[in-house]
Specification:
The protein is an alpha+beta fold. It is built from one helix and five strands. The protein has a domain at 10-68. It has a three-stranded antiparallel β-sheet with strand order 1-2-3, covered by helices on one side. The protein has a two-stranded antiparallel sheet with strand order 4-5. Strand 1 (13-18) and strand 2 (22-27) form a beta hairpin. The longest helix is centred in the middle third of the chain and has 20 residues, at 49-68.
Length: 88
């Protein structure tokens, strides 16, 4: 399965992950970096640890669903249509 996915080289950065720490982003020089969600106009919508953990959670959950045979191959960080809304 991994061979079917793109494996791009990140210019000036690296990304790693472990089960216990989630994603870790580093600069080319080894300094800490942050994950961000950037819109099509280049505006930073969200950044930092919350983005890293939300991305990690989605990756883990979709993989677990696949292993369990549930067929839920799409996982969202929150229900579609609720972006920016706080839970009641």
């Amino acid at each position: 399965m991994k061979a079917a996915l793109p494996n791009p080289v990140l210019a000036g950065a690296s990304l790693s992950a472990t089960v216990s720490t989630g994603f870790t982003a580093k600069t080319e020089a080894g300094g800490n970096a942050r994950l961000a969600i950037i819109d099509e106009n280049g505006n930073v919508i969200a950044q930092g640890q919350d983005v890293a953990w939300a991305a990690w959670r989605v990756c883990v959950e979709v993989q677990e669903n696949f292993w369990e045979g549930q067929g839920h191959l799409v996982v969202h960080t929150q229900p579609p249509g609720s972006i920016g809304k706080q839970p009641d």
